[in-house]
Write a structure and sequence with these properties.
By secondary structure, the chain is of the alpha/beta class. Helix content is about 40%, strand content about 20%. It is built from 16 helices and 20 strands. The protein has helices spanning about 45-60, 65-80, 85-95, 100-105, 105-120, 155-165, 180-195, 210-215, 230-240, 265-275, 295-305, 330-345, 375-380, 395-400, 415-425, 460-465, and strands at about 10, 15, 25, 35-40, 125-130, 135-140, 145-150, 170-175, 200-205, 220-225, 245-250, 255-260, 290, 345-350, 365-370, 385-390, 410-415, 430-435, 455, 465-475. The strands form 5 sheets. Strands 14-15-16-13-12-17-18 form a 7-stranded mixed beta sheet, sandwiched between helices. A 6-stranded mixed beta sheet has the order 9-8-7-10-11-19, sandwiched between helices. α10 links the parallel β12 (about 255-260) and β13 (about 290). α5 packs parallel to α6 and α6 (about 155-165) runs parallel beside α7 (about 180-195). The protein starts with 8 loop residues before the first strand and ends in a 9-residue tail after the last strand. The structure holds nicotinamide-adenine-dinucleotide. Nicotinamide-adenine-dinucleotide (NAD) binds near residues 148 and 231.
Length: about 475
């Protein structure tokens, strides 16, 4: 089969098969074909992987940061050399067009490995002089980290979690989404080829139950999840029972605000990227597009013209720029939201049609005249459905934009410099954009507030989430004991 890897899991430096686990079919979203058949990890394999990772971590942490960083950077180079093959695999795993995966997935993973590989040699504590005594701090790894991925960016998510974890001297067991299990195996293989010692980055396949077994093991010190808010609540609660560190990268319903003075085509570009890239299956998407009434008609007209240019088709064809949804269930969810939008009185401006071909296809969809109380303005759809809402004033739009349980991202399009910064400062969101949308360079912290998450990925901030400080008091003066 097309995407068939050497085996289901990557444990302790090699591919491992374990047919005692439940079968896991990998389906190519563009055709509905089964392209690989894997197995979930059994309890025995989970225990063995944890045991070996705990042992390996001690030796990994004992290496210098420079040594660890060299290996991560070597892996980044190998990923870049093999970008095309990895992108083709990412396209089979997710259905996202090759035009996207060639520039957004393996390359983003390589950026993370490069960046944290570079930081590894610079991890340091501080020296605090207290008269003749002093305190010094040591930045130490957490130990064994578990990474759990969503299905929309399997390569990127694996690397965004592995790179800072490994740079800090941790070991990681990564459980990809059961929908997209292939890409992380390749990352594990490449890390191993780059010189990563066995047991430091492992991949175990499985559904939620495998994730739960990992999280609940007392030898696991940290859990980093990318997934939905409901899953985040469950995972956070399990981690809390063991007092484990967490990073939660969860869902959103982010506002994208377009003021009358914005550059029209730039704003339309932002709305297209922030709603239809990866067929709308992006957590930080700006799915509530607030458009000031003065620019509304021009915006909708231009948007409609440009969305009509989407090239929908074979994702492996590099000219295609709009692919299928991940699975039949997601297609069903999106269809139901479209039906709800219509029944609640939203105006369907464009799309909303199922495409009659094998796989999970729906056209990019734009609703106008949306009000804040409509279901499609409140709930995360995770599909190509844009909701356009009107607004009159700055104060009004800020209040409405913040009326949501989510807080992952937000964007503002305006040519008024002061207004851009003033509005962004008042939006309750972690990842924000002015005259842009969805840029996610490794140098910038990424993550949400409110229900959208806890902690940050990427940037120097991620180091805080994969390490802990030990403080050491050093006494040079005599101790004054009371007796
Ligand atoms: P999901 O929550 O269904 O699954 C995410 C992962 O959690 C999967 O690997 C799944 O197997 C695992 N899981 C499910 N139940 C579990 C449990 N009880 N214990 C442990 N693990 C469990 O999410 P999804 O459908 O794969 O992805 C879509 C969601 O992810 C959307 O809400 C989207 O916004 C969010 N997302 C967030 C980010 C971000 O960085 N903030 C990025 C991508 C996707």
């Amino acid at each position: 089969m097309i995407g068939q890897p050497n085996a289901s899991h990557f444990v302790n430096g090699k591919y491992v098969e374990d047919t005692s686990g439940q079968e896991l079919d990998v389906i190519y979203p563009a055709t509905g074909e089964v392209i690989a058949r894997l197995h979930e990890a059994s309890r025995q394999l989970i225990d063995q992987t944890i045991h070996q990772a705990v042992r390996a971590q001690k030796m990994w942490a004992a290496k210098s940061g420079a040594e660890r960083g060299r290996i991560l950077r070597r892996a980044a180079d190998l990923i870049r050399e093999r970008n095309r093959d990895l992108s083709v695999l990412e396209t089979y795993d997710t259905g996202k067009p090759l035009q996207e995966t060639l520039v957004a997935d393996a390359t983003s993973g390589a950026d993370a490995l490069d960046y944290f590989g570079g930081l590894a040699a610079n991890l340091a504590g501080e020296h605090i002089q207290l008269g003749n005594d002093w305190v010094y701090t040591r930045r130490e790894p957490l130990g064994l980290c578990v990474g759990i991925g969503a299905w929309n960016y399997p390569t990127q998510i694996a690397c965004w979690k592995a790179a800072p974890a490994l740079a800090c001297g941790n070991a990681m067991i990564f459980k990809p989404s059961e929908e997209t299990p292939l890409c992380a195996l390749k990352i594990a293989e490449i890390l191993s080829e780059a010189g990563l010692p066995p047991g430091i980055f492992n991949v175990l396949q499985g559904r939620g139950k495998v994730g739960e077994a990992l999280i609940n093991d007392p030898k696991v010190d940290k859990v980093s999840l990318t997934g939905s808010v409901p899953t985040g609540r469950r995972v956070y609660a399990m981690a809390a029972a063991g007092m484990k560190h967490v990073t939660m990268e969860l869902g959103g319903k982010s506002p994208l605000i377009i003021f009358d003075d914005a550059d029209l085509d730039e704003a339309v570009s932002g709305a297209i990227l922030g709603n239809f890239y990866s067929s709308g299956q992006v957590c930080s998407n700006g799915t509530r597009v607030f458009v000031q009434t003065g620019i509304k008609e021009a915006f909708l007209k231009r948007l409609q013209e440009r969305v009509a240019n989407a090239i929908i088709g074979d994702p492996q064809n590099e000219s295609t720029n709009f692919g299928p949804l991940i699975n039949a269930r997601q297609l069903d969810i999106v269809q139901n939201y479209i039906a709800t939008g219509k029944s609640e009185g939203a105006r369907l401006l464009y799309g909303g049609e199922i495409i009659d071909r094998p796989g999970n296809w729906i056209t990019p969809t734009v609703f106008a005249d949306i009000t804040d109380d409509m279901t499609i303005a409140i709930e995360e759809i995770f599909g190509p459905v844009m909701a356009v809402l009107d607004f009159e004033t700055e104060a009004e739009v800020i209040a409405r934009a913040n009326t949501t349980e989510f807080g992952l991202a937000a964007g503002v399009f305006t040519n008024d410099l002061k207004r851009g910064h003033r509005v962004i400062a008042q939006l309750e969101a972690g990842s924000c954009f002015i005259n842009s949308y969805n840029d996610a360079p490794v140098e910038a912290p990424f993550g949400g507030v409110k229900q959208s998450g806890v902690g940050r990925e990427n940037s120097k901030a991620a180091i805080e989430h994969y390490s802990q400080l030990k403080s050491v008091y050093v006494r040079m003066t005599p101790i004054e004991a009371p007796y």
